[in-house]
Specification:
Structural class: alpha/beta
Low-confidence stretches: 1-28, 43-92, 226-388, 447-452, 650-670, 1095-1255, 1443-1454
Number of strands: 57
Radius of gyration: 47 Å
Mean pLDDT: 76
Helix content: 25-40%
Strand content: 15-25%
Length: about 1950
């Protein structure tokens, strides 16, 4: 025998020691030879070691090396040399010099690319297949790791073995590949070593990705040097949970399979394992046998090093022989004939050859990997192939012997390899995953340090598992969720005390000493487990295996084969050997438990495949034959055949009478008083939700992120995405039609809205994708339309768009639509996701901000109805509460008889899928119940009481209504194939029993329409008054009142709504193995509905149970039939009702007791008895409501009879008696209860009259009673079981199959958590899986929440569709409102009849003629309606009979002035809230430009009026500096550029625009970009100094003129004064500058525009001659259109001889256009709010800088008196927006005494000088003006309503109130004044008169006797000097007490005035 053959024959028994890598020597001879040659070449020793000595090296050498490794220090980060390829000493190493010009920086490769982990952690690095990312250490960068990609074949496994010699790696920086020597590679990455590079020394650890997708440090690479440390901290080489790298050979098979399933690369999979690697390392340090756990590995090592080393030596003394069943792998060196593909193929084939048969094993293995992905993958699961024992043989005929396939739960340690009859067993990894999850350190406790946080020991985990299994009932199935919860609770309790002690020690600066922990030793474990198992009725058996798990499994299979485990549900195998850690596994032998766990490994899709396979292959034939024999006669089909013959006239009289009754029912006239008319209305709670949605949208728009510009949208468009269900699609379309939203939004005409509604609702199918494409095109083409993409039922399809593109193309379609790049980036698309189960949308990767979640509000708070509705939502919590009752049947029940039959049949047919068995049993029950109803009482024992109740209620409901209204029974069968089978069988039974006209059976599947027979279709048309012959029901709501069984199929419900006539929801067939919160809650949500609150009878258990409710006598009003089951159950529950809250169960005892009395249902006519009992009951007033999504049915039936008292029909109207009869209803409840007790005994003698039957219509009862729901027992217990905190077990389940927990240590949900808190809970503790649509966000960490995505969360069937349709409506109205403003719409006042004038203007004149305007008379009368309360200006034309109006406060003007809502034109001025693409740059908010920098410039000039120099400050943005002249050098502001009169530029406005403003930094209309139509212009905001910062913030790109601080308390007069003074001074500077440039001074443009900050739009008035007019003159049509401000200004600026006009302006807009504007296109009159001012002509006419009000009237009068022209362009008008804040409202008059609330009247604005009057904090001028406005009636008593004797006011106009007329006279020489000859004045007002006012001027005027004089001066001395200078004492009498001052303190400079009387 050659050496090669000897080696191959002994490769299982020998190891080969190698000082290089320490790998197993189980390779071929050629590999060893090659390795030896390479080692010799690398060694200094000239004599190489013989090959044969290596081949036959004794195992003691290996042991010696291990012991040496154990003695080394345990520092994982040590930089010691780990040995070379040979035993030769180290030699100095000279590094090859780097190439010239390359990078030599530490941490960078020679190509200059950064390799440091901190730099590339977030980058996506492409890793070739078979390579891993490794962290390398550089001696020059001890704090950094360098990232490199290394071929995993050259890396060791977790035992430091199986690494190829040599190296193969790539540079991840520059991408260079193919480095074959580590020396070459270390040079490339600039390690700069002084010793020879060794991969063992410098390749330190694996790099993995954490949950955030960042690259982080992973487990250490187990080289030979670290092997000893690994062995030291681990109990054996096969520790319970090995800490192996992600791609170690021990797990390569599993991971490779996982790759093939998930379609991801190795790097992606390593990201899943990030959380568990650290935990595995921590576990590998646990020393088993000393104690369960140790807090600190290092401290333990230092405290007891000898003991540790001894233990390690003892552990390693047993040679570890690992027999690989597969090929041993690739050769240790690179051979040309070997490729990685060949090796992997061999390995894969080996795996498949050892896996179980395809029927069970492959599926289980696939699901095992899926389960690994679902739970947090905390490291690789040890492969079953890596084991040290002989394979365990599964015996033949195991399934036949046990009647079930045992399930083996992997536990601790490696499961032995199984062979033999693998079809009869299932291997489940859930328990192992559970153990691993509980070993991970939770993030919650990381802050406390790992020295405090401990982990549960293996022994403790096993013991807790035994305790859990022992407390299960014999028929109860184990749930991994329960066990994980137990383990977590145990961990928390064990660490809570220790953590607190640690925190106290840290806070008190006391050294922390770990307390002794309570541990369980392996020896104690066995007898403690057996002790626990002995108290559990022998359902758990403990097998103590002293050698291995294989021995225990073999013993278990032997006991199973011998039948010695009968009655044992669980076998726990515990292996506690002396030198190994504790290993365990659990074998599930219970039939029900094993079947449940085996099926739970299947996905929902695999469930359906399995079911279809059994149906197609005919495996159900035996099952069908078995059920056919379940009949007293032995053949149920034969019995049904007899029934069919009886139906044809050959039967008994019983069935004949039944048929007769059926026929009379059909022919009965339809006169039921219950209306079936539906009306669409919005309920208050839906409106509240719609408004919440709108407020969130507005919050997005109001944020500073510029993500949504609501002001730019003109209309709303939408598209609704619904699941691929035809009924859900039709249902949504119906609600869209009923809401009228298409017409309201202006999307469709009213005539075509119903026809085109389908374009706005899209099923998520590939066929309907064209609708989305059309929607997308509309969104891209219409930027001014806001598109709402509504994803309804959003939790249904969360699959990533690329997950299943071929097999099921509709999956992932929602992702491809909602997360479409175009949709996400479109600024005019808002996405609204609507769901009842938002949990899977609330992960760490969610795109939805928590601030964008809208949760459905509760309608009740502390028992109060918040929305004042008569209906209460009855949801899941209410159904659960109904189970806690001592005197009523619960609304949530399970069928114990059905469960018992299921158990029996599953034992008989163990290979059959449980869903098939359950469906057949339910078909059997329904068939038998129908036969019992038809009179075959012998079948009652073949159905359950619950099913009999359902069918009895269904068939008897039509007898209580004259129109044959009935109940619906919803039967939920998820499998479409099984649903079709049930439908076919039940229809067959119904037909043979002759019940086809009694009730309908409907098959409801997602892809088909509703199909019913012609008989029932006719009935529906009659009930709903439909005349369309082609009408068919489109939704389940159309089946209202139809007696039917609706078989609802499909994997998931799709949000379909059901009518209120649905009384029973039979959910006994829902998938009990899919234990996810969303899956279960959406099934239970089918029964959610609204019930009427004010029902006279107490029939249902509402959500809040009071103490008094439990004491009231109960009755089973849940069913209207006389069902003995309910009577018995009620009597029984009454006996047990001694607890505060006791659950009522539908148990075996109830069924057995009721079976004796159930014969009453068969032996008598069921319809007659039920009808009689119904007639005895009190009629029910009800309002049937189904407000889900806006569709509402209101019924207000009339009561026609009452057993308690008789009332007329008018008195019993529900709508009239709702509030009046509450007391009567409460008082009559007890009498009705008594009447009902007697009615049952005398029912046989009573005959119901028609009115009584009408009042008992099933719909009437359904409106007040929630339906009854039947569940599987397992689901029932899950739903109703609560923990000590009152939280149901259901809420603790994983929320969705596309997410998983980040750790098992997540806290539990609290009962008091709100929806918002639950959202934050799931956002913190769940992450998306790879197939989740949000998973891609993990890959791109730069993405944040999507700014335009909202989530609406509400319970099922609560009305969400109606809410979001209402949201669309109010959103559209708000957008329209945003495009509208309230403008003042007031007719001009004081208009007079037009007199014939010699001067006639040309009506077609566009520009004024200077001569004509000069000849026009000035109109002194003020026509602006805002001055309606001001004093009229006297003129000869003033009407003497002017009526007096009630005096009002000025502050009320804004409230009483008439406004009109106007839509903004494209030429409107905007405030700061407007943001559009066109004016971003204009506003200075453009993201494309740099922030606008501004500079502050001083501008100084002398002012003669102020007798001093004035310094103003300009804030000039950089972008506007071209409008100014600056000195060179120095950059000082010299002047503001002005154009020339002769300049002609169509895109330029010549006049600078000045807008004085205060208090309106947000609301002022300063954005003139659109108003100017893009024309260049100069706009200056005139602001006060204290407002400079806030205006600069909101308008960064605007020029601002800052007034001096002395004007902070001044009014608008000061702003106008300084604007005019500045402009004239600037005009002089510009004339000098232009003169130097050769222009004439008079050619410089002299006009400026002074505009109010509320001017919003400008209009032009045109006339058009009617073409059809025959009259003479021709009839003219008035056309008014919006024009731009540019058009208005350019039109005025082009006026001929424009410099000769002093003021030009436009009129105030009014909707009533008067003929004078057409006859006089121009007029000389007062100008307000918007005017062009010629600063040159008006040089000597100044604004009064002291004025607060009426300064424009005062200025107009003085301009006219100076002989200057004022021209108003009547064809132009300006609209003023109503702005309720800012402006004059900024001045508040209040007391200077702080914190003294007092009401100040205008009479208190003045006081006597030197008096102790309360001074006011207001400017003196403002106090004076307000005083004169409100109290001048007392000051000028002769002037009140005396229009022919006005008050003479010299040089000024002051408002003296609307009842006093003021005559303005100027004292200036050559001024134009009104002719006062013959005019006698009733008063004289002298306001701050200057030297132009003389006594001679005053003596020209005549006054009435007793006329009043008022002289106003700055101080008291000026007052006396004025009286003397004007010789006033000659004609006026003064008194000392007539001297007054404004109520100001001396520092505020009060004004003084003196009054006198004319003598």
């Amino acid at each position: 025998m050659c050496v090669k053959e000897i080696f191959q024959s002994n490769n299982e028994d020998y190891k080969m020691g190698n000082s290089y890598a320490g790998q197993l020597k189980t390779t071929r001879f050629e590999e060893v030879l090659h390795s030896s040659i390479e080692a010799s070449l690398r060694s200094n020793n000239l004599v190489p070691r013989p090959v044969f000595s290596q081949l036959y090296l004794e195992a003691e050498h290996q042991l010696t090396s291990n012991l040496e490794a154990c003695k080394r220090p345990g520092n994982e980060e040590e930089e010691e040399d780990d040995g070379s390829e040979s035993s030769s000493p180290l030699i100095p190493y000279q590094m090859k010099p780097p190439p010239e010009g390359c990078c030599t920086t530490d941490g960078f490769c020679q190509a200059g690319k950064d390799l440091r982990l901190v730099s590339v952690a977030n980058e996506q690095i492409e890793v070739p297949s078979g390579f891993l990312l490794i962290g390398a250490k550089s001696p020059n960068l001890p704090e950094h790791l360098l990232v490199c990609a290394v071929d995993k074949r050259f890396l060791p496994d977790d035992n430091g073995r199986n690494a190829l010699l040599g190296f193969s790696g790539n540079c991840v920086g520059c991408g260079e590949k193919g480095f074959r020597y580590f020396t070459e590679f270390s040079n490339h990455i600039n390690l700069k070593l002084i010793t020879q590079p060794k991969k063992q020394k410098h390749l330190k650890c694996y790099l993995i990705r954490n949950a955030q997708g960042c690259l982080t440090k992973g487990p250490l690479i187990c080289w030979k040097g670290t092997e000893g440390r690994t062995q030291q901290s681990s109990s054996s080489s096969t520790s319970s949970i090995p800490s192996q790298p992600p791609e170690s050979p021990a797990s390569s098979t599993t991971v490779a399979s996982a790759e093939s399933i998930s379609g991801t690369n190795q790097n992606a999979l390593s990201g899943f394992q990030q959380a568990g690697t650290v935990a595995d390392q921590a576990l590998s340090r646990t020393v088993t046998g000393i104690s369960a756990t140790h807090n600190n590995r290092d401290s333990f090592r230092h405290q007891n090093p000898v003991k540790t080393n001894n233990l390690s030596c003892q552990t390693m003394s047993r040679p570890s022989v690992i027999g690989n069943l597969a090929n041993s792998g690739p050769p240790k060196k690179r051979h040309r004939g070997w490729s990685p593909d060949a090796s992997s193929a061999t390995e894969t084939n080996s795996i498949h050859s050892n896996l179980p048969a395809p029927n069970s094993g492959s599926k289980a293995d696939t699901v095992e990997l899926a389960c690994m992905t679902q739970s947090s993958l905390l490291g690789p699961i040890p492969s079953p192939l890596t084991t040290s024992e002989e394979p365990v043989v599964v015996p033949d005929n195991l399934l036949k012997i046990c009647r079930t396939r045992p399930v083996i739960f992997k536990g601790h340690g490696n499961l032995p390899h199984l062979c033999g009859n693998l079809n009869d067993i299932v291997v489940n990894p859930l328990l192992q995953n559970c153990y691993r999850n509980t070993q991970s350190f939770p993030r919650v406790y990381e802050q406390h340090s790992t020295s405090v946080t401990t982990v549960l020991s293996v022994e403790m985990q096993v013991l807790l598992t035994v305790y859990y299994l022992a407390q299960l009932a014999p028929d109860q199935v184990p749930l991994i969720e329960d066990l994980e919860h137990i383990l977590v609770r145990a961990w928390q309790e064990s660490n809570l005390t220790e953590t607190k002690q640690y925190q106290q020690a840290v806070s008190q600066s006391v050294p922390y000493v770990s307390p002794p922990t309570l541990t369980v030793t392996p020896k104690q474990l066995t007898w403690l487990a057996k002790l626990a198992a002995s108290s559990c009725k022998n359902v758990v058996k403990i097998l103590d295996s002293s050698n291995s798990l294989a021995e225990g499994l073999t013993e278990t299979f032997k006991l199973l084969s011998e039948g010695k485990l009968q009655g044992k549900n669980f076998v726990v195998i515990i292996c506690t050997t002396k030198n190994q850690s504790t290993e365990s596994c659990v074998v599930i032998t219970g039939k029900r438990q094993a079947g449940f766990l085996a099926e739970r490994m299947l996905s929902p899709k695999e469930h359906l495949k399995e079911i279809n396979y059994e149906l197609v292959t005919g495996k159900v034939g035996a099952l069908g034959a078995f059920f056919s024999s379940l009949c007293p006669e032995g053949d149920i089909d034969a019995l049904l055949e007899k029934c069919s013959l009886v139906k044809n006239g050959q039967g008994t009289s019983v069935t004949a009478s039944l048929k007769k009754f059926d026929d009379t029912t059909i022919q009965r006239p339809t006169i039921c008083s219950v209306s079936n008319k539906e009306t669409c209305q919005i309920h208050p709670v839906q409106l509240a939700v719609a408004r919440k949605l709108l407020s969130h949208v507005c919050a997005i728009a109001d944020s500073s992120t510029q993500n949504l510009d609501l002001g730019s949208f003109e209309k709303v468009d939408f598209l609704i995405l619904v699941p691929p269900s035809e009924v859900a699609y039709q249902q949504t379309m119906l609600r869209v039609r009923q809401s009228g939203i298409l017409v309201e939004l202006g999307l469709e005409a009213e005539s075509s809205a119903n026809q085109y509604a389908e374009q706005y609702v899209m099923k998520l199918t590939t066929e309907a994708q064209s609708k989305f494409e059309a929607f997308q095109q509309r969104a891209l083409k219409n930027p001014y339309t806001l598109f709402i993409l509504i994803h309804d039922h959003a939790h249904w399809d969360l699959t990533s768009g690329g997950a299943f593109p071929q097999s099921e193309p509709f999956l992932g379609l929602a992702d491809r639509i909602v997360n479409c790049k175009e949709m996400k980036e479109a600024l005019n698309v808002l996405t609204l996701q609507v769901t009842s189960f938002p949990f899977a949308l609330q992960t760490q990767q969610t795109y939805i901000s928590p601030y964008n979640e809208i949760h459905w509000p509760s309608s009740c708070n502390n028992g109060m109805n918040l929305y004042h509705e008569n209906n209460k939502y009855f949801g899941l919590s209410d159904f659960i509460d109904s189970t806690y009752s001592g005197h009523k049947l619960p609304l949530l029940r399970y069928d114990s008889s059905f469960e018992a039959m299921v158990t029996a049949v599953e034992e008989r047919f163990p290979k059959m899928h449980s869903a098939v068995i359950w469906t057949y049993i339910l078909i059997q029950h329904y068939s038998a119940a129908m036969m019992v109803t038809a009179g075959h009482s012998q079948m009652k024992d073949y159905s359950s009481v619950e099913t009999l109740e359902i069918i009895q209620s269904l068939t008897s409901s039509t007898g209580s209504c004259p129109s044959s209204h009935g109940y619906m029974v919803l039967l939920r069968i998820p499998s479409i194939s099984l649903a079709a089978l049930a439908y076919e069988r039940l229809c067959q039974v119904r037909y043979r029993l002759g019940l086809q006209h009694r009730f309908e059976i409907i098959l409801g599947s997602p892809n088909t329409k509703i199909n019913i027979s012609q008989h029932f279709l006719t009935q529906l048309k009659v009930w709903q008054k439909i005349d369309d012959p082609n009408w068919t029901p489109q939704t389940y709501l159309d089946l209202e009142d139809l007696p039917c069984i609706l078989i609802l199929s499909g994997t998931d419900p799709y949000g379909e709504s059901f009518p209120r006539s649905a009384k029973y929801y039979d959910l006994r067939l829902i998938n009990s193995t899919c234990l996810l919160r969303t899956a279960l809650e959406q099934e239970l949500g089918l029964a959610a509905c609204y019930v009427v609150l004010d029902v006279p009878r107490q029939t249902v258990v509402m959500n809040d149970l009071s103490e008094s409710d439990l004491d009231k006598p109960g009755s089973t009003d849940d069913d209207e039939d006389s069902v003995a089951v309910e009577v018995t159950a009620v009597a029984d529950s009454g006996k047990k009702g001694n607890n505060k809250r006791q659950r009522s169960y539908s148990s075996h005892s109830a069924s057995s007791r009721s079976s004796k009395t159930s014969s009453l249902l068969c032996d008598s006519d069921p319809f007659l008895s039920s009808g009689v009992e119904d007639s005895a009951r009190h009629p029910l007033n009800a309002e049937s409501v189904n407000i889900d999504d806006g569709s509402v049915t209101n019924e207000k039936p009339k009561l026609k009879a009452d057993n308690t008292q008789q009332k007329s029909m008018n008195e019993t109207q529900y709508s009239e008696k709702y509030r009046k009869n509450l007391d009567k209803i409460d008082n009559s409840r007890s009498s009705r209860r008594c009447a009902k007790i007697f009615s049952s005994s005398s029912s046989s003698t009573q005959t119901p009259i028609l009115g009584q039957m009408s009042s008992q219509c099933p719909r009437t009862k359904a409106a007040s009673q929630p339906p009854t729901v039947f569940l599987p027992k397992l689901i029932y217990e899950i739903v109703t079981t609560m923990d000590s905190a009152g939280v149901t077990k259901l809420s603790s389940f994983l929320p969705h199959h596309t997410v998983h927990w980040i750790t098992s240590f997540h806290p539990s949900l609290a009962k008091t958590m709100t929806s918002t808190e639950q959202s934050l809970y799931y956002r913190q503790w769940t992450v998306a899986k790879q197939n989740h649509m949000d998973f891609n966000k993990t890959q791109n960490r730069t993405e944040i929440f999507h700014p335009r995505r909202l989530l609406l969360n509400g319970p099922p069937q609560v009305g969400k569709t109606g809410a979001y349709l209402q949201f669309l409506s109010i959103l559209s109205r708000m957008l329209i409102r945003l495009m509208e403003v309230d403008v003042y719409d007031e007719e001009e006042i004081n208009l007079k009849a037009k007199e014939d004038s010699a001067l006639q203007q040309k009506e077609s004149s566009l520009w004024p003629d200077l001569e004509n305007i000069s000849e026009l008379l000035f109109d002194y009368t003020v026509h602006d309606p805002k001055y309606e309360d001001a004093s009229p200006v006297y003129s000869r034309d003033l009407e003497n009979n002017k009526g007096c109006k009630a005096n009002r406060k000025e502050d009320d003007i804004y409230l009483r002035r008439h406004t009109t809502r106007m839509r903004l034109s494209k030429y409107a001025a905007y405030n700061t809230y407007h943001h559009c693409e066109q004016c971003y740059e204009y506003m200075g908010f453009s993201s494309r430009c740099q922030p606008y920098d501004s500079t502050l410039h001083a501008f100084t000039f002398s002012c003669s009026m102020l007798a001093e120099e004035v310094q103003l400050h300009f804030i000039i943005p950089k972008s506007k500096e071209h409008n100014f002249i600056f000195s060179q050098p120095g950059g000082q502001l010299e002047s503001m550029r002005l154009p020339l009169v002769t300049d002609k530029n169509p895109d330029c406005i010549k006049s600078p625009i000045f807008t004085p403003t205060t208090g309106r930094h947000e609301h002022g209309l300063f954005n003139l970009y659109h108003a100017m139509d893009g024309a260049s212009h100069l706009h200056v905001l005139v602001i006060k100094e204290y407002e400079m910062a806030v205006y600069k913030k909101y308008w960064p790109n605007h020029i601002m003129l800052v007034l001096p601080s002395i004007f902070n308390n001044s009014g608008v007069g000061a702003a106008h004064f300084l604007i005019k003074e500045l402009s004239y001074h600037n005009l002089e500077l510009e004339r000098n500058r232009q003169e130097e440039l050769g222009s004439k001074p008079q050619d410089v443009w002299p006009f400026i525009v002074i505009a109010d900050d509320s001017c919003v739009m400008w209009n032009s008035l045109d006339t058009e001659v009617s073409k059809n007019s025959t009259s003479v003159p021709a009839e003219q049509n008035i056309l008014e259109r919006n024009v731009s401000l540019k058009h208005v200004l350019q039109h005025i600026e082009t006026t001929a001889q424009i410099p000769h006009y002093a003021l030009c302006g436009v009129r105030k807009w009014s909707s009533k256009v008067h003929s004078p504007y057409l006859e006089e296109p121009f007029s000389r009159c007062h100008l307000h709010d918007f005017l062009l001012l010629n600063v040159d002509l008006t040089q000597n006419v100044q604004y009064n800088q002291n004025r607060f009000t009426c300064d424009d009237v005062d200025f107009n009068l003085r301009v006219h008196s100076a002989g200057l022209l004022i021209c108003r362009f009547n064809h132009f008008s300006v609209m003023k927006k109503q702005i309720a804040i800012g402006g004059h409202r900024t001045f508040l008059i209040k007391s200077k005494v702080p914190d003294v609330p007092m009401s100040i009247s205008p009479s208190q604005y003045i006081c006597a000088p030197d008096s102790k009057h309360t001074f006011l904090a207001a400017p003196a001028q403002l106090l004076l003006e307000k005083y004169l406005q409100h109290t001048s009636n007392q000051l000028f008593p002769l002037s009140v309503r005396n229009y022919s004797h006005p008050v003479l006011s010299v040089d000024c106009y002051l408002n003296l109130g609307q009842e006093i007329t003021v005559c303005f006279v100027s004292s200036r020489p050559h001024s134009l004044n009104i002719n006062t000859s013959g005019l006698t004045f009733s008063g004289l007002l002298l306001y701050l008169c200057d030297s132009f006012v003389t006594s001679s001027i005053l003596k020209q005027f005549h006054f009435l006797k007793g006329a009043t004089l008022c002289v106003i001066c700055q101080d008291r001395s000026s007052l006396r000097q004025t009286v003397v200078r004007l010789e006033l004492e000659d004609e006026w009498q003064f008194r000392l007490r007539d001297e007054f001052q404004t109520a100001n303190s001396q520092e505020d400079k009060p004004l003084f005035f003196l009054t006198g009387r004319h003598v």
